[in-house]
């Protein structure tokens, strides 16, 4: 949520990282499921 970062913060965003001005549409749970990291 880069829109809310403090003005003095320099985000460390790598070439393969995603950055979002606001919340992404994919939930944290959905991200974990997609990466095979979800435990029921």
TrEMBL record:
Protein name: Uncharacterized protein
């Amino acid at each position: 949520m880069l829109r809310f970062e403090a003005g003095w913060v320099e985000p460390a965003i790598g070439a393969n990282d995603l950055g979002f001005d606001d919340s992404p549409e994919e939930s944290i749970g959905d991200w974990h499921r997609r990466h095979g990291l979800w435990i029921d």
